[in-house]
Write a structure and sequence with these properties.
alpha/beta; 5-stranded parallel beta sheet
Length: 130
């Protein structure tokens, strides 16, 4: 365990703005030297992975009939990823189970909205030169 709470990032894009979320993941990855795992749930995920394969060290396929929480916990155990060093970016309703185990959970859509607002604020702070 290296104490980096973002050593591992597990991302499930869902319906989030993929462009913005990918920019944020790149920032986390560069700053924290994170290993990024993409959850594959749809054809859109496969297409995105093909276009941005350099971003992801691994993929996590979902198991039929298994909850997202159980899939993540099982994946982390199998790959020896410490809970306290793993950030999960996913739209899930039951975050308490994962946070109780030590994971940090962030909503991709909330992250994208926050990023957009930060850009808007930055834009309003920067005055064009005349």
């Amino acid at each position: 365990m290296n104490g980096n709470k973002y050593a591992n990032i597990i991302v499930c894009y869902g319906d989030a703005d993929r462009e913005i979320l990918t920019k944020q993941i790149k920032m986390f990855r560069e700053r924290y030297h994170s290993k990024v795992v993409m959850v594959i749930e749809s054809e859109n995920d496969i297409s995105w992975l093909n276009e941005h394969s350099e971003m992801f060290e691994e993929t996590m396929d979902r198991a039929d009939g298994v909850s997202f929480t159980d899939d993540v916990v099982n994946y982390c155990k199998m790959h020896h990823l410490a809970e306290k060093e793993t950030l999960i970016m996913a739209e899930i309703s039951d975050t308490e189970t994962l946070t109780g185990l030590g994971f940090e959970v962030k909503s991709p859509s909330d992250m994208a909205e926050s990023y957009k607002k930060a850009l808007e604020m930055l834009g309003s702070m920067i005055k064009p030169r005349v």
